[in-house]
Design a protein that fits this description.
2 copies of one chain form a homodimer. By secondary structure, chain A is an alpha/beta fold. Chain A contains 9 helices and 15 strands. Chain A has 2 domains: 63 residues, Arc Repressor Mutant, subunit A; 175 residues, Rossmann fold, CATH 3.40.50.1360. The first copy, chain A, binds a DNA duplex through helix 3.
DNA sequence: ACATATTTCGTTATAATTCATTAAATTTCA
DNA sequence: TGAAATTTAATGAATTATAACGAAATATGT
């Protein structure tokens, strides 16, 4: 990995989640401890990050606070999301057309992608930027741009989606429930998710264990254990249904 | 492989992927290390790419932060562009569907927009952000995302465009010539512009006076004085043709 | 609180890449 | 053919990445 690219990814990672450990950065960039240490020294000297024991911290807390919901989620259950992402990428084969939903779980997945010739489709600019930083081509569904979520929604996005077909799709969710299925709090997001899932030969939902038993306002797909990837199933009623677990 | 073709592929690869290693370029062009090195020196000197250790980086990438207004104002002919934008917005009526091309002239226009109920369509994320900051809705044509220009191009973008129809469109250009018409240096950009112009009931080209008499590699529309807006016409051969001037 | 592990850090040393330079081989075109 | 341009090869120097290790800071257990 090129040094400049690596430095960029470190800055990105630090700004996304308030704090990043040195070891997380080692895995993220596939570099050694020494290298990351040197990078952190460099970035701290140039004022890009704040170096603290064990890793790095974002410089500003003021300008980052404009969109708390997204940033918060990035921090929460991050380790689990990464585990899930690592499990999910094993399903991606070379040259596939893969759709990535907008959401924190899929952001983690965008970072872990590693297969030649894959084409990534998404409605999230955040995902698109990560995919490009990873060296893959990113195709973005257009539509009404929502600044707060950095993603495209609405009828125009759905209409565009209906013209494409994906080998594989990965979707985030806010709730997983036996009765209500997969749910999100936003009507438009749910519509986009549902439409995109229709266009996938196979669609997997990514959900860390904290989402189980949660129901938010809009369902976008019925419960389907065989296409659900999580870190670990704790509740008894979800056991032995064939849910894919990404235990380390 | 021809040298020009190789240089073009390098520029393309860098702009698409944001970072490209020297070895990747060697494989891409089937050339030796020395050749690529020489190419990178040449391209960096002419300002097409940024050379970094181990490869090349897209130019746009230096200031990762989205602080466009500053960057724009530092750009060439800013005062003229703003004049032109102010003239152009007088053509925008309430509730119109308006297409804005990617480019610095249209960025200025995005800042000057002031009509109720208008819907703005664009292929530029830069424009989209400005439009939203101005309080209007922004609809973005999807497609392959190009990091360096912060815009969407390619067949997917053209395909999406073909489904929409705009009351009015504004386009930037790199060259204005009586014989060669309106030209840009990039084939894909030209294709997008041409396609978008087709979808407009009326399409205006914005060009500050420095563009007159300039011809770059690809034409996207024949010369049309009645739909050309500039700050001031200096050359005699372009006088009295009905070009709209935005004199203060 | 104390002593003992464990982790993290900074330094130094070493290995691996990448670079600029030069010169040789190759192609192009007059 | 022969000169100019282009591509390639070869080199030692410079930069970067990694490994090793003792010191400092934290965590753990009694």
């Amino acid at each position: 990995m090129l040094k400049e690219a690596r430095l960029n990814r470190i800055i990105e990672a630090v700004n996304e989640r308030r704090f990043v450990s040195l070891h997380a950065l080692m895995e993220l960039t596939h570099s050694s401890e020494s290298t990351i240490r040197a990078d952190l020294v460099e970035l701290a000297e140039s004022g890009k990050i704040h170096r603290i024991r064990g890793g790095a911290q974002a410089i500003n807390d003021e300008s980052l606070s404009y969109e708390p919901s997204l940033e918060d989620k990035l921090g929460l259950h991050f380790a689990e999301k990464r585990l899930i992402a690592q499990k999910a990428v094993t399903l991606v084969r070379p040259n596939m057309a893969v759709y990535l939903d907008a959401g924190t779980s899929t952001h983690a997945l965008a970072e872990e992608l590693d297969a030649p010739g894959i084409k990534i489709f998404t409605n999230s600019m955040h995902v698109a930027r990560k995919v490009i930083a990873n060296g893959y081509k990113a195709y973005v569904v257009g539509g009404e741009f929502k600044f707060s979520t950095d993603a495209f929604i609405g009828p125009m996005a759905q209409d565009t989606l209906s013209r494409f077909h994906f080998d594989l799709g990965f979707f985030g969710t806010n709730g997983v429930s036996l009765d209500q299925g997969f749910t999100t709090p936003d009507v438009e997001e749910a519509a986009i998710k549902a439409k995109a899932m229709e266009q996938c030969k196979e669609a997997y939902v990514l959900a860390d264990s904290s989402k189980f038993g949660v129901v938010t306002s809009v369902s976008f797909h019925p419960f389907d254990p065989s296409h659900l990837i999580t870190d670990h199933v704790y509740q008894d009623e979800y056991r032995n249904l064939g849910i894919l677990e990404a235990k380390p």
